[in-house]
Amino acid sequence: MKIFEQFPQYEDGFIVLRRFVQEDAKYLSEVYEERLTKRQAEKTIENYEKSYHDKDEVILGIFGKEDEQLKGIIEIYDIHESELSIGYMIVEKYRHQTYAKNSVYLLTKKLIEDYGITCIHANCHVDNIYSIRVLEHNGYERLGQEEDEYVYAYKPKQLEQDTFNQDEKMIVLAGGCFWGIEKAFKALDGVLETTVGYANGFTDNPTYEEVCRNETGYKEAVKVVYQSNVVSLSTIIRAFFLCIDPRQRNRQGNDIGSQYQAGIYYIDEKDLDDIKPVYANERMKYDRFFVELEPLKNFYTAEEYHQDYLDKHPNGYCHITAFEMEEVRKLNQQPCQIKVILPSEKELTLEVPNNTTIAELLQEVNTEQRIYAALINHKHVHFSECVHDQDVVQLQDIRASYGNICYQSTLTLLYLKAIHDVMGKNVTVTIANSLSKGLFTVIHAGNVTDNLAKEIEERMHELVEENI
Fold this sequence. Notes:
With 468 residues, this protein is an alpha+beta fold. Helices cover 29% and strands 27% of the residues.
């Protein structure tokens, strides 16, 4: 078997599955829930190694990616050429987090991809609701029952049904009472799963009552699993800010206490590329701003009666208004894409989501591909002089009483926004160098009739008056 040629090791943004070394012996008592002497623990690890070299089984430790702490054990046994079995044990204090689900997901995916396994078996006790959920969430099919255990199997044909979609991602968000926040994110297309719980505290296995006493450091939060090729993380963060008041510390609405502190807790550091532009734009709007932005340290699933609370109790308490909920739903509308062709013949595509502000559009433009300026030459707005200095364009003597201004690319984006607002569909805009005075002019590409051009012009004037 290929699996015995080299000891496997797998990782994602949350966990690492790896072989045990003797330095890990001190953690084993937590997994087996019995006191092991140092020698007993070391002997156990030696037995793991022997089992591998004898080609009997593969035992991997489940370690946190950030804290490198042992979360549990996952094993591969009954290994044959095309099928095998897996099982796992999670340290008690981590059982209601996502380590089991993530480990089964990662291991199953890799066994199929790397070794061509055609069937993976797994059993769990009929009363073990948590393990049942873990297996079924990961696409394992219940085949039957043997005594007091359910028998499950996973077959690669299910892989074609996107059980393992590389676009599936996760973010944890705290925004006041988790009942309402969960309901809001359920309204977004592309959100696959929501789980309410407690994030970034300093005790183990917190209860709702303990969290409410403000003694644990935990925030009521929602773990959002989403399909990144359907809904972008930036859209999710926009939805989050539609639901909270960033000016409030340790409260949201009528809910007061440290458990209601707003925060964004990411798992993958690469997600900051999508989070920071929206976060920075929101921060610019307020003199006071109290939204945490931190890596996820821990997350404990809340009690079952809190899960899907407003689905079970439609008239239950919700601090998010009907208007805010509707604004979140509007984000489901497909964004317009504007393709910009620069004078250098480089192409830049801007996505213009609903509710996008001009400041957010400015954030969207990559520094290296900055649109330096686009001057609109028509009878109402005329620019008599342009001084181009790197990525700053000074626009002087603007008629129609717009005054003197100095912007990097605000006017360009105002014009693109005007096109988007009027045409409401994907368009291409060419920005070309003018022969006179080094000015930039905007040339439409596509079917822009005289009437549409007039509407765009009128909308442009409105945007200039609103933003300049």
